[in-house]
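Section 5: illustrative case.
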């Protein structure tokens, strides 16, 4: 029995042409096989003694871990299969790769849908307030690591989200699951260490690569305000949502480059139709133009702004873009450092 999505029926609707449905099925299958098989092959490569092979394996792990997170996002929105149970089952498998398995999948799904529904960000960890509260030496070490693109604050935020349930009675139900998953993964790391010690380091590098990819891609998608969990918010309409959402594209001319990350950069289109399959997002993006044409950030500008503001965003928070001559000026758009709502709880 097919399920009704929170935002309407899944876009994998019967009205779609046979050719389009076949193309979707083929590409989804290729992506799923590449993600799972590529991650396994990457694990094999990092156990090899050759430096180049291990490096290639680590890069492959970074990309497939990123894709596993983005596929989980697609599956949450029920765009791959017509049956909700199949989408959820595959998402749970992929969470073993992305690291979302520490938490309840249904809880992560509710959290992500809330992001769409309330049109705001919830996070109980104010990075700016926390970093300012630190003594000078650890603060300088963390900032230096961020300067050299080591995502220290994302790692700290991740550790906090795993540790907090053990210090909070409200989050006590999460303790057993987190403890079991941590124990199981620790056993896997020990076995990997026994077989090829350097592979553990290469796996960690791949995981840091995933964090960096997701941070760069998600850094400038929204100018939503961020509130502590539980803060009551007034109703916000779709116009507000689109005005505070930005799209980040590799290329307008070579659309296939955006497929490398399942068209996740077409963020205005995704928020306009959250149930749309990733292949449909470019078409939806064009239907929203010219209204959101000025909300499109090309990759070179995205990377440039991420680089220039990598320290500013730690101390100054989100910032605000300016629209000048139909384009986004990012001189004061610092971006965000935050958890990804479909793989980590924002306590």
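Designed sequence:
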């Amino acid at each position: 029995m097919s399920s009704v999505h929170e935002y309407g029926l899944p876009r994998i609707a019967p009205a779609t042409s046979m050719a389009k449905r076949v193309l979707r099925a083929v590409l989804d299958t290729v992506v799923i096989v590449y993600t799972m098989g590529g991650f396994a092959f990457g694990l094999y490569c990092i156990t090899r003694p050759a430096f180049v092979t291990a490096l290639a394996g680590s890069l492959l792990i970074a990309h497939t871990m990123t894709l596993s997170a983005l596929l989980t996002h697609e599956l949450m929105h029920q765009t791959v299969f017509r049956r909700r149970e199949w989408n959820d089952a595959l998402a749970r498998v992929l969470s073993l790769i992305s690291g979302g398995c520490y938490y309840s999948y249904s809880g992560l799904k509710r959290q992500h849908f809330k992001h769409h529904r309330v049109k705001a960000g919830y996070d109980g960890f104010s990075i700016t307030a926390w970093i300012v509260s630190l003594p000078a030496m650890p603060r300088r070490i963390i900032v230096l690591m961020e300067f050299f693109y080591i995502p220290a604050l994302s790692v700290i935020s991740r550790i906090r989200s795993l540790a907090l349930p053990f210090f909070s009675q409200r989050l006590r139900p999460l303790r057993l699951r987190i403890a079991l998953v941590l124990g199981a993964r620790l056993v896997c790391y020990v076995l990997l260490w026994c077989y090829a010690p350097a592979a553990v380091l290469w796996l960690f590098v791949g995981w840091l690569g995933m964090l960096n990819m997701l941070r760069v891609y998600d850094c400038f998608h929204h100018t939503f305000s961020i509130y502590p969990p539980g803060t009551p918010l007034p109703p916000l309409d779709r116009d507000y949502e689109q005005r505070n959402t930005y799209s980040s594209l590799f290329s307008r001319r070579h659309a296939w480059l955006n497929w490398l990350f399942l068209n996740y950069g077409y963020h205005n289109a995704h928020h306009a139709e959250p149930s749309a399959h990733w292949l449909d997002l470019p078409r939806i993006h064009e239907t929203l133009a010219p209204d959101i044409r000025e909300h499109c950030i090309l990759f070179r500008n995205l990377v440039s702004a991420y680089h220039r503001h990598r320290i500013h965003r730690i101390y100054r928070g989100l910032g605000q873009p300016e629209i000048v001559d139909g384009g986004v000026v990012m001189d004061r758009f610092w971006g965000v450092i935050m958890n990804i709502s479909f793989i980590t709880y924002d306590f």
